[in-house]
Amino acid sequence: MKIAFIADIHGNCLALDCVLADIRKKNIERIYVLGDLCYRGPEPKRSLDLIRSLNTEVIKGNADEWVVRGVREGEVPAKAIEMMNRERDWTVSQLAAADIEYLNQLPSELKVTLEGITIAAFHATPDSLFDIVLPGAEDTLVESKLMLEASSQIYVYAHIHKPYIRYLNGKIIINTGSVGLPFDKLTMASYATVEITEGVVQTSIVRVPVDIERVVQQYEQVEYPNAAMMANVVRNASI
User: Fold this and answer.
1) Strand-pair partners of 118
2) Strand order in 200-209's β-sheet?
C-alpha cells in the first residue's frame, strides 16, 4: 500500500491543486493531512473545502489553532503579533462558523498501521502544536520530542516547512515539508509518501512545481493584509 502525508497548505490552494494532481498520477491509495490548512494564504476557504472533500483523517496544526483563537504572546516574536492577528482576522472573515468549529475539533495526532508497520503522525510533536524540531537536531532531542510512541516504526511530522528523511535507532523519521509555504529555498510544493509492500518499506519526499507568480497575484487580488511579505516568502521559499 502507498500513502501520502500532506501538511502546511496555509491557504495556498493552487499549490494544493498541484500536489493532489501529482498524488492522483501516482495512484496513491490514502492521503493523510497533518495540519495548517488555511491561515496565511490567499484562498483559505477553498483550501479548507478541498481538504474536507478528501474524506480522510486530518489533524490540527498550530495555524489551525490560531484561526480558532488568535495568535498569543510568546508564540511568535512580539513585533509580529499585531500583523499576524490581522492576517488571522482576515482568514476568519473568509470562513463560515462551521469551518471554525471544524478546525477547533480536529485531533492532534493519528496512528496508521500498514502490513504490521505502525506510523505515528502529528503536526509538530506529540505533545505540542508549536515545538520546533529541525532537520539537524541532536539525536537525543529527536528521541525525546518525536519518538514518544515506542511501538511505532515510522514517525511523520510537519510544522518546520523543511522536508527530510532520517534514520535513528532502527526507525524512520519523516518531515513532510510544506505544500503551500516551503522554507528550504526550493520553490516547489512538498509532501511525503510511504509505501509498504510485503515487508518492504519505501519512503520519499516529493517536490511539485507551482506557478509562484500566480500565487503572488492571488495575494494582491484578495488584498491580503500582509501581501508584500507573503509574496517574498513564496518567491524565495524562505522566511
Assistant:
1) 113
2) 30-33, 2-6, 188-197, 200-209
Residue count of the chain, please give it. Answer: 239
Give the pLDDT confidence of 149-179 residue by residue, as tens digits: 899 999 999 999 999 999 999 999 999 999 9
Could you tell me if 106 and 52 are in contact, meaning their C-beta atoms sit under 8 angstroms apart? no
At residue 209, what are phi and psi to the nearest 5 degrees?
-70, 145
Rg (CA), the chain: 17
Residue identified by cell 519505501 is 202
Beta-carbon contacts of residue 7 (< 8 Å; ≥ 6 apart): 33, 34, 35, 36, 61, 123, 158, 159, 176, 177, 178, 179, 191
Q: What is the pTM of this model?
A: 0.97
Neighbouring residues of 170: CB distance < 8 A, sequence distance ≥ 6: none
58 DSSP assignment: B
Q: Are the C-beta atoms of 60 and 106 separated by less than 8 Å?
A: yes
Beta bridge partners, 204, equal 193
Q: With CA atoms as reference, report the closest residue to 105 among 68, 159, 56, 131.
A: 68
Tally of CB atoms within 10 A around 236: 13
CB-CB contact of 123 with 62 (8 Å): yes
